[in-house]
Amino acid sequence: MTQRPTFGLAEGLLLATALVWGTSYAVVKDAVMLYPVLGYLALRFCLTALLLAPTLRGAGRRAWRPGVPTGLLLLAIFLSETFGVALTSASNAAFLISLCVALTPFAEWWLLGQRPEARALGAAGLAVV
C-alpha cells in the first residue's frame, strides 16, 4: 500500500487559495475607498457572469433553479462582507470572516445532523476560543 505524501497538490492549491484570498481583503479595502460598495459588487458580479456564461451553454432553464437561490445567498454574503471590509480594517475583516472555517463543523452538525469527528470539533472549538 502506497503512503500518501504529507503535503500534496491539493494542499498546495489550498494554500495558494488562502494567499490570494488573504490579500484580497486589502485590495477590496482600497477599491471601496475609491468606488461605492454596491457599484463595486455590481461590476464584480457582472464580470463574473460574463466570464462564466460560456459554461451555461446548453443548460438553459435547468441552470436557473439552483442558480438563483445560490446567487442570492452569495449576494447577501458579498454585501455583508464588502460593507464590513469598508467599515473596519482589512486584517480585522479577514480574521472575522476566517472564523467561518472554525464554525463550519458546528454548522454541519446543526444543519445536516452530521456530527464531526471529535478531533475536528476540538480543533474548531480551540480556534473559536
Can you walk through the features of this model?
The N and C termini lie far apart (39 Å). Helices cover 78% and strands 0% of the residues. The longest helix has 26 residues, at 9-34. The model has no long low-confidence stretch (mean pLDDT 86). With 129 residues, it is mainly alpha-helical. The chain contains five helices and no strands. The radius of gyration is 18 Å and the shape is globular.
Radius of gyration: 18 Å
Main beta sheet: strand number and arrangement? none
Poorly predicted runs of 5 or more residues: none
- Globally, the shape reads globular
In percent, how much strand structure appears in the residues? under 5%
What is the share of helical residues? Answer: over 70%
Helices and strands, in order, run as: HHHHH
Q: Give the N-terminus to C-terminus distance in angstroms.
A: 39 Å
Distinct helical segment count: 5
| Quaternary organization | single chain
Mean pLDDT: 86
